[in-house]
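Q: Could you fold this chain for me?
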Amino acid sequence: MKLLYLYGPAAVGKLTVARELSRLTGYPVFDNHLSIDYAARLFAWGSPEYVQLLRALRLFTFRQMAQMGQQGLIFTFVYTPPSSDEFIRQVLEVCEASSIEPLFVKLEAPREVLLERIQSPERKPLKKLTNRERLLQMLEQGALQAIPFVESLRIDTSETPPAEAARGIVQHFGLEPLP
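A: Sure. Below is the predicted structure, expressed as structure tokens.
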């Protein structure tokens, strides 16, 4: 199975590109907010129990999708070093043990574009971050960085429309588009 791992800061367009990519490939989208919302209903956000459950849900889903014979899965994620590094290493271990091919795509955009997009009204119903100050905090914590120990395709979403970004990902990784 191919695990398309789309990452980047809030408001960069991960879910939008993921949906376009799903339309092209037929791969389902695992938006990271699904696991965040679930874990937050059971444990206090950010608590050790919350983080443990969050990671377990994601890793379980990757393994199960591969065991079920899925061709691919698209996952969205905000990388914030160094706290995300342990999880990324766990993902790589699961991929190796489960014959999953991880394909990392870093979506990026200039800070001013992210600050403008964060206030978009369509973010609120999806329970996505809409607070400029929190976005600035995340950016200061390293959310603009690439994962240093994996190779990532990089796409600037301020210059590349979502459909074009998805086509570029399909072409770069040699994915089979739907007929």
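A (continued): Residues 2-173 form a domain with the Rossmann fold fold (CATH 3.40.50.300).
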